[in-house]
Design brief:
single chain; three-stranded antiparallel sheet; binds pyridoxal-5'-phosphate
Length: 349
């Protein structure tokens, strides 16, 4: 660190490792194993317009999202990945010293942003079976951040339970991070936007749409809330989405058949991997996402992670007490998962 560094906050986010020492079978960052829609390459096309700044309001992209989700474009915000959308939510709706609420086991970025923006946190422990304790959340004060399905558990909280939280205290926001919702769309909270002014739904094209390398994320909320988020965007990074991403996003939204096909392949592989690991004596949580959270029979997740890495397969291990027995395994192509299952069978003995 230089002597000039003035940031008081805690530790930065630690992304899944991207080692360059050899070719790994990469099952550690929940990327999609299949390429994006073929319409994406077509959409990039002629690049002569890159000399011009992009539309700072991303209006065509927002309109396309709004049409796809039955909302008004005023209820849609577009960001450079959902991480940027989440950052703007923290900036717009929290002030230094405020308290934010989230579970003990969830997406690591919520804590990072809380630290960066000088916020207090109230951490609510998940139940022993890793389900979300809605009653305990109701006893808290401050905006709630919930990943649904949760990461790294893959468990989903029914929208009816989120509705209870929204209703219980209409004076705080519930920010529902639906990064994995396309793998089980009936659980989206988007229909709740009609009823609740204190709801923000966040989604991304990084997982199901296979566009992690492009950086596209979205926020859905009341038009007033979206206006607030936009004020922050225009105060920080007015041209937050480049021209290529805006047209790629529109193309990706339109290819619903391709999305359905990707989701069907990934979920079929996930079900097969879940059963196979359970048959080997692993504990596997029932995932609604494109990864599984699994504990080997010896329940030493760190050891299993190292063993897999030594054998060319990267998964993610979180060293906190409750997560330590588990690893998070991204669902890859069927042959990748066969490699993983063969290694798991050996390690189980
Ligand atoms: C992957 C992920 C994100 C970040 O997605 P980007 O859109 O790539 O920034 C946000 N929230 C959760 C829960 C995720 O798993």
């Amino acid at each position: 660190m230089s002597s000039f560094y003035r940031v008081a906050g805690g530790r930065p986010y630690v992304p899944g490792e991207q080692p360059q020492d050899k070719q790994y079978c990469k099952l550690n960052t929940n990327e999609c194993p299949y390429p994006p829609s073929p319409l994406v390459a077509q959409a990039i096309g002629d690049c002569s317009d890159l000399r011009l700044y992009p539309d700072p309001t991303s209006l065509n992209l927002r309109a396309a999202m709004a049409t796809a989700y039955g909302l008004s474009p005023k209820q849609v915000f577009a960001g450079g990945g959902s991480d940027e959308v989440l950052a703007y939510c923290f900036m717009a709706f929290c002030r230094a010293g405020d308290t934010v609420v989230f579970p003990d086991i969830t997406y690591g970025f919520y804590q990072v942003y809380a630290d960066l923006f000088g916020l207090q946190t109230q951490i609510v422990p998940l139940h022993d079976d890793f389900t979300v304790p809605t009653d305990a959340l109701m006893q808290t004060e401050g905006h709630i951040f919930l990943a649904n399905p949760n990461a790294p558990t893959g468990l989903v909280l029914p929208p009816a339970d989120i509705a209870k939280l929204l209703e219980h205290n209409p004076h705080r926001l519930v920010i529902v991070d639906e990064a994995y919702i396309d793998f089980l769309t009936e659980n989206t909270c988007i229909p709740l936007l009609k009823r609740y002014e204190n709801l923000i739904v966040v989604q991304t094209f990084s997982k199901s749409r296979a566009l992690a390398g492009m950086r596209l994320g979205f926020g859905f909320a009341s038009s007033d809330i979206i206006e607030d988020i936009e004020k922050v965007q225009f105060s920080f990074n007015p041209y937050n989405i480049d021209r290529l991403s805006q047209r790629v996003g529109i193309a990706a939204i339109q290819d619903t058949a391709y999305l359905a096909q990707t989701v069907a392949k990934v979920t079929a592989t996930r079900e097969r991997v879940t059963s196979a690991l359970r048959a080997l004596g692993f504990e596997v949580l029932t995932s609604a996402a494109n990864f599984v959270f699994a504990a080997p029979p010896h329940r030493d997740g760190g050891r299993f992670y190292t063993y897999l890495k030594d054998n060319g397969v990267l998964v993610r291990h979180f060293a906190t007490a409750r997560c330590a027995p588990f690893v998070r395994i991204t669902i890859g192509r069927d042959d990748d998962m066969d490699t993983l299952l063969a290694l798991a069978a050996k390690e189980g003995k």
